[in-house]
Amino acid sequence: MAIRQIRLEGDPILRKKSKEVKLIDEKIIQLAQDMIETMRDANGIGLAAPQVGILKRIIVIEGEDNPIIAINPKIVYSEGEITDLEGCLSVPGFSGFVKRPEKITVEYTNEKNENIVIDVNGYFARVFLHEIDHLDGILYIDVAEKIFREQEEKEEV
Ligand code: ZN
């Protein structure tokens, strides 16, 4: 495993659309494992492949026990609406309020090539939505209602 460099806002790769993964081979597994290591090293809770410069539809999310590797993730259902704070490893030092669905159903392929369909809600749903946006070149700062520098946050919230 290796820690990869996290691309920062302004890097054009973050604005491109990622491609579907057709074959889950050792290279893809290695990439996903590097993404987990990179996410943990940066104290993140989710990371998308374009954030390490790879335009493939892969995200990793810190789970309750084990991290989730979601390949070709799709939101197949969403319900409700909730606004909460989020941040992004590609936009360090900032956070912002983003309105997102409250409950979602996500379909993806895991690293064992199994098709997974899960219902997620609350902050976990937010992380999925945020990471899937990255695969379409969307950053939360595009959709945030308000963005703060992290030291201002305490005064303004
Ligand atoms: Zn992000």
* Small molecules bound: zinc ion
Q: Architecture, CATH level 2?
A: Alpha-Beta Complex
Q: Helical content, roughly? A: 25-40%
Number of domains: 1
The helix-strand sequence is HEEEEEEEHHEH
Number of helices: 4
Shape: globular
The unreliable regions are none
CATH class: Alpha Beta
Strand order of the largest sheet: 1-2-3-6-7
Give the strand content.
Answer: 25-35%
- What is the CATH fold-level name? Peptide Deformylase
Give the mean pLDDT.
Answer: 95
Write the layout of secondary structure elements.
Layout: H1 26-41, E1 46-48, E2 58-61, E3 68-79, E4 82-86, E5 94-100, E6 103-109, E7 115-121, H2 122-135, H3 140-143, E8 146-149, H4 150-156
Antiparallel strand pairs: 1-2, 2-3, 3-6, 4-5, 5-8, 6-7
This protein binds zinc ion (ZN).
Describe the structure.
This protein is an alpha+beta fold and 157 residues long. The chain has one domain (12-156): Peptide deformylase (Peptide Deformylase, Alpha-Beta Complex). It contains four helices and eight strands. Strands 1-2-3-6-7 form a five-stranded antiparallel sheet, with helices on both faces. It has a three-stranded antiparallel sheet with strand order 4-5-8. The radius of gyration is 15 Å and the shape is globular. The N and C termini lie far apart (39 Å). Bound molecules: zinc ion. Zinc ion binds at residues 88-90, 130, 134. The site of zinc ion has 5 residues, from helix 2.
